[in-house]
Specification:
heterodimer, A: 434 residues, mainly alpha, Farnesyl Diphosphate Synthase, two-stranded antiparallel sheet, 21 helices, 6 strands, B: 409 residues, 18 helices
Chain lengths: 434, 409
């Protein structure tokens, strides 16, 4: 990728390197399939992403509007330093002018409740899972049923069921969810829960969803074995679909989950690699399950490779947006409730998007990230600096861009309630407070 | 390059404990390599080989001889099956972290050592048995096949299955070695080390399980995924049964049927399901599937009875398992009079005297003999399941191995 440099700065070399590294991260985020252009805002050293379509057409979708307005607001002078040389709007004026075009475009929000659309299937979910986890051993039964009490968000099955519907309508098979697709939704929730059980042991957390965690109640050893048990029963359910491709797709998720957990163990020494490391980890730990579930139900709904890939892209972007919002809520959510953020991630030594963004404004965060906030006062200082920085807003911006990408992936699905619900889901997840 | 990676991993692991292991380990590397090469160039060498069938009489007596003969037949030393998994970045990462565990008493270290340097007792025979059963069953007569499809008489998918079986077993051992942090005693070492050991154990076990799952998926046969997943489920269920929960020696409820159930769940299920899956993968008949399943299950019963008799009668080999759950004592409960039961009720785990008294009374009731009889019965059942296969080197090797692992020393 070549850049036309409009204005040089003193720290040019170091800065460019940083930019290029972040662009790589962005490329990873958006996938390499399309030709994306990047505008870079210098002062806060953020990467603002805009897709090629915004440069060519005279209409801006909400994503590009946000990114460009954002750029403009912060750009007092010539703050856009580098643009791909191919971009036809390679100066600030053009971008500014451009941004005002999109400003008046109203957002189309459709008032549709995603949950309502698949209510019947969602309602029986917990029971279906419990049926799958049927065993004679009382303790095993109690422990394996523990988290399937119907109180969880069951976000993954919801996405899987809606995607099933959207796919089936697109391929003209049915307007309902097929039983094999429902099995995939169940498997997704089971894999997710098994991974939660294991994560809680690794992170030594005593609570989960406001109740006592399994490891706190029954000890670490049995919790891990229950996690494995849930996984084995999920595999049995998965095998019942009789589709080797679907089995392969969902099995690959397990490898992603483990390798994501491994990535979380170590932090990159190089500041520039950190963001892409974080994004890869986010994909593996969260987005992979959602993305591959979407792909699996699309295949079961007889979608061709192209459409299955679109379904996958929807899930991937939705998953990353979901996790980004999760990471920023760790800094803000409890602030509203308890007046003080919990910063649970920081306490675990994890540097998530808000911190990584903040570190660009406050380099003193870097050594803390490296030592995983282990020195007394690190967590407090980091929290304070994140609050002072634009880290949270920038994370939100990134999340909203992924949400928009997710919505874009749905363009080729036939218009239906299910598709609208998926679009709405991508929007409302940005607004969630917990 | 492979061997280099391994060297560094295990050097990291063992440099602080014992270099003996390392040298022992490095000695075997050329062996794998030469073996693999020979598989590639002469895939059928072992089939063509005209080797006189040894008669039952001169069957190798020692276990290691039986194993090494069997390994030659399948052209692949099984002890290194799960080692391939260890070559990944993730595990080298673990190995690096595990250095911190050296000197602590976390069970993960022991499992890791056993995984690479097979001790006398936990040699990885599962994979070997699966491959031998595959070879004994031979190619599917219905489906046309070329000699290239099979290496040393085993389909690649069956070989992969054998490897997966070992990986799953290892993963289950690692996960069972996780300790409850609230139960640890000061002698175990600092809490932080045990916590770290747990973390490593969770991750490495998960890593092995996830590679096993995706390996299984790649076999492209949903029935096999189902069978092996059931086996994993059984192994986990075994840790939650009442029999498992009861550690008290005087606990009188455990019957031999409970013992059988426990052994089937914790050990038999995996081998039985894997042997069956090997038949499924080759497209053999339901009848052969049943026979292979029964072979796997009965081998484990015979082996476990033999192990428990040895560990009950031979105090040196006494395991940490409390005698109350050992097969001879379980049978004793069914045979003993009320008077004789008192020995069990008064048994104190710390006293040698008390132990000897229990041993004598168990002998007197004939429970030990009955246990030995049962061991032979299960061995014969296992061998009888092989009747459906025609005579071959592989079948003979199976018989030799079963005999070796169920022979009471």
């Amino acid at each position: 990728m070549s850049f036309k440099v409009l204005k040089e700065t003193r720290h040019f070399n170091k800065w460019t390197q940083n930019v290029i590294e972040q662009l790589r991260a962005c490329e990873f985020l958006l996938g390499n399939s399309e030709d994306y252009r990047y505008a870079v805002h210098k002062r806060s050293q953020n990467v603002v992403i805009c897709s090629s379509s915004s440069c060519h057409s005279h209409r801006l979708c909400p994503t590009h509007r946000t990114s460009l307005i954002y750029t403009t607001l912060n750009a007092n002078t010539t703050s856009i330093l580098a643009l791909p040389s191919t971009c036809q709007y390679s100066n600030v004026q053009a971008v500014r002018a451009f941004s005002t075009v999109g400003k008046d475009e109203p957002d189309v929000y459709v008032d549709i409740d995603p949950y309502k659309l698949v209510e019947a299937d969602m309602a029986s979910l917990a029971n279906d899972i419990k049926k799958q986890l049927n065993t004679q051993e009382t303790l095993l039964k109690t422990m394996s049923h523990y988290y399937f009490d119907g109180k969880g968000k069951t976000f993954r099955p919801l996405v899987a069921l809606l995607m099933s519907k959207a796919c089936n309508i697109s391929t003209n098979i049915s307007d309902r969810v097929m039983s094999k697709q429902k099995t995939v939704a169940i498997v997704a929730e089971m894999i997710h829960t098994a991974s939660l059980v294991h994560d809680d042991v690794i992170d030594a957390s005593d609570t989960r969803r406001g109740q006592c965690s399994l490891n706190k109640m029954y000890g670490q050893r049995k919790s891990i074995l229950v996690g494995d048990y849930i996984l084995s029963q999920a595999s049995i359910a998965l095998a019942s679909t009789g589709n080797p491709q679907v089995i392969t797709i969902l099995s690959s998720v397990l490898e992603d989950l483990v390798s994501g957990e491994f990535m979380q163990l170590g932090s990159k020494e190089d500041e520039n690699e950190r963001f892409s490391h974080y994004l890869k980890k986010t994909y593996k730990k969260t987005a992979s399950l959602i993305a591959n579930t979407c792909k699996a139900v699309a295949i079961l709904g007889q979608c061709d490779d192209y459409m299955s890939e679109k379904a996958y892209q929807y899930g991937r972007n939705l998953g990353i947006a979901f996790q980004l919002v999760d990471d920023l809520l760790d800094f803000v959510s409890s602030e509203l409730v308890m007046g003080k953020p919990t910063a649970a991630d920081l306490k675990l030594g994890l540097a998530t998007a808000p911190v990584l963004f903040a570190a660009q404004e406050f380099p003193e965060l870097h050594p803390m990230i490296m030592r995983r906030f282990t020195v007394d006062g690190d967590v407090e200082t980091a929290r304070h600096l994140v609050a002072k920085s634009e880290g949270v807003q920038q994370t939100k911006l990134l999340a909203s861009q992924h949400s928009q990408e997710a919505i874009k992936s749905l363009q080729e699905f036939r218009a239906s309630d299910a598709r609208l619900a998926l679009e709405r889901l991508a929007r409302i997840l940005l607004e969630r407070k917990s | 390059m492979q061997s280099h990676a391994l060297e560094s991993i295990f050097f990291k692991l063992y440099s602080e404990t014992s270099l003996v292991y390392l040298t022992k380990y490095l000695n075997v590397i050329p062996k794998i390599r030469s073996n693999q090469c020979h598989c590639l160039h002469f895939p059928n060498r072992n089939i063509i080989q005209t080797r006189k069938y040894a008669s039952h009489r001169d069957a190798p007596k020692s276990f290691s001889k039986a194993v090494s003969d069997a390994e030659k037949l399948v052209g692949y030393p099984t002890s290194f099956l799960s080692l391939r998994c260890l070559l990944s970045d993730e595990v080298s990462n673990i190995a690096y972290h595990m250095r911190k565990l050296v000197g602590t008493k976390h069970p993960l270290l022991k499992t890791a050592r056993g995984m690479v340097f097979d001790g006398k007792n936990n040699l990885q025979i599962r994979g070997l048995l699966v491959m031998l059963v595959s070879k004994a069953a031979g190619p599917n007569s219905q489906a046309p096949y070329t000699e290239q499809d099979m290496i040393s008489g085993v389909y690649p998918s069956q070989r992969a299955l054998a490897e997966i079986t070992e990986v799953i077993y290892t993963a289950s051992l690692i996960h069972k070695g996780i300790v409850n942090l609230k139960d640890i005693v000061p002698e175990d070492g600092p809490l932080i080390d045990m916590e770290f050991g747990n973390k490593m154990a969770v991750l490495s076990g998960d890593y092995l399980l996830s590679s096993a799952c995706s390996g299984l998926a790649k076999l492209g046969n949903p029935d096999v995924v189902d069978l092996v997943a059931r086996a994993i489920g059984d192994m986990m269920t075994a840790e939650f049964t009442e029999t498992f929960e009861t550690t008290n020696t005087s606990q009188i409820s455990t019957r031999f049927t409970d013992w059988l159930k426990q052994t089937r769940l914790s050990l038999g299920s995996l081998l039985a399901h894997s042997c069956r899956s090997a038949m499924t993968l080759a497209g053999h008949s339901k009848y052969l599937e049943e026979m292979a399943f029964s072979f796997g299950e009965n081998v484990i019963y015979a082996q476990q009875l033999c192990k428990e008799i040895t560990s009950f009668t031979n105090q040196d080999e006494q395991t940490s398992q409390s005698p109350g759950s050992l097969a001879p004592v379980v049978l004793f409960r069914e045979l003993a009079s009320e008077d004789e039961m008192s020995y069990l009720l008064n048994y104190s785990p710390d006293s040698v005297y008390s132990y000897n008294k229990l041993l004598n009374v168990v002998r007197r009731t004939g429970a030990l003999e009955k246990c030995q009889d049962l061991c032979v019965q299960y061995r014969n059942k296992a061998i009888a399941s092989l009747d459906c296969f025609k005579e071959s080197d592989a079948k003979l090797a199976l018989i030799n191995m079963v005999t070796a692992i169920s022979s009471i020393k």
